Amino acid sequence: MSNSNPVYPVIWHDDRVLLIDQTRLPQEYTVVEIRHYEDMAAAIKTMIVRGAPAIGVAAAYGMYLGARAIAATDRQQFLSELETVAETLRQTRPTAVNLFWAIARMLKTARGTLGSVDHLKAVLLETAQTIQAEDLQTCRAIGEHGLNALPKTPEKLRLLTHCNAGALATAGYGTALGVVRSAWIAGRLERLYADETRPRLQGAKLTAWECVQEGIPVTVIAEGMAAHCMNRGMVDAVVVGADRIAANGDTANKIGTYQVAIAARAHGIPFFVAAPFSTVDFELASGREIPIEERDPVELYQIGTTRLTPERGVDYYNPAFDVTPASLIAAIVTERGAIAPGELAQWRGVQAG
Ligand code: MRU
């Protein structure tokens, strides 16, 4: 059923990281070479690499690239300089908790590893590779659990997704799009509706591109059309990814997700969130506490080189994420299974990764 090679947005090869440049897809498939942690930080900020789990994987490699450039052989000096690397990477994007989770895991590994600085560096590379490999496995498990959680009827489902939570947004396979993939492979997918996802158009550009790679039937719609499609009986379930899930199940995802969830509830359509367990931030009691990134207004007033709005006299507000309340979510699908948002609390204290 699949007619393409798998997509891996982050690849470790020949002592450097290769990133698929997601700002150029689908027009151009290009790969950017990253050898320095500052360049990795820039790649995350400018969204050459994007999507919560992929950002986590990229940041882990960024930590290694920073570590290997540290000249100090004294352990304490090395760890102190590594903290500077971590801080630079933390400053890239505030919402996806996977970034902070991966950096913290790399720091914990460095602090907890005995031996020479050279040995520490080698262990950090292994840890980044492990984080990447685990994410791929996690996505496959999410795909399976998500498939089991989907409505049993009709046999062939029409699913709707928002943004891109696919292979490009993870180590590979995807979370929400992983569920879609698993449904497709199992013969349970009729069609995917992909919200175009203003303003960065991840749905139109990236989700559509991934579907085309695998022959998955995809219809791109503007997110303003989602409620209409639901009203016309064209959608059986919604599956989206997540950037951060608070302890009560409130979920931050790409701006526009919330209104899709409201529309789904109004039409009695189940709304699923698919994400690795590491996306749950038990430090935050509710979605109110999730930091929401605001990006440059140029994303709103310009597409490519075309200006959309009057040159002067207009103000802009460009939050990159919104929070869907737990009450609108049928289930959160992680690698541990699909659970109601209210059941998340029982996992508090069980560490991810
Ligand atoms: O701004 P982006 O493109 O990084 O936002 C991506 C999303 O909102 C995804 O839905 C989310 O990160 C989950 S990716 C598996």
From TrEMBL:
It catalyses: 5-(methylsulfanyl)-alpha-D-ribose 1-phosphate = 5-(methylsulfanyl)-D-ribulose 1-phosphate. Keywords: Amino-acid biosynthesis, Isomerase, Methionine biosynthesis. Its EC number is 5.3.1.23. It holds the Pfam family IF-2B. Substrate binds at R50, G51, A52, R93, Q202, N253, K254. SUPFAM superfamilies: NagB/RpiA/CoA transferase-like. Signal peptide: none annotated. Pathway: Amino-acid biosynthesis; L-methionine biosynthesis via salvage pathway; L-methionine from S-methyl-5-thio-alpha-D-ribose 1-phosphate: step 1/6. The record marks C163 as: Transition state stabilizer. Coiled coil: none annotated. The keyword Signal does not apply. GO terms for biological process: L-methionine salvage from methylthioadenosine. InterPro entries: IF-2B-related, IF-M1Pi, IF_2B-like_C, Initiation_fac_2B_a/b/d, M1Pi_N, NagB/RpiA_transferase-like. It comes from the Bacteria. GO terms for molecular function: S-methyl-5-thioribose-1-phosphate isomerase activity. Catalyzes the interconversion of methylthioribose-1-phosphate (MTR-1-P) into methylthioribulose-1-phosphate (MTRu-1-P). Belongs to the EIF-2B alpha/beta/delta subunits family. MtnA subfamily. This is Methylthioribose-1-phosphate isomerase. The gene is mtnA.
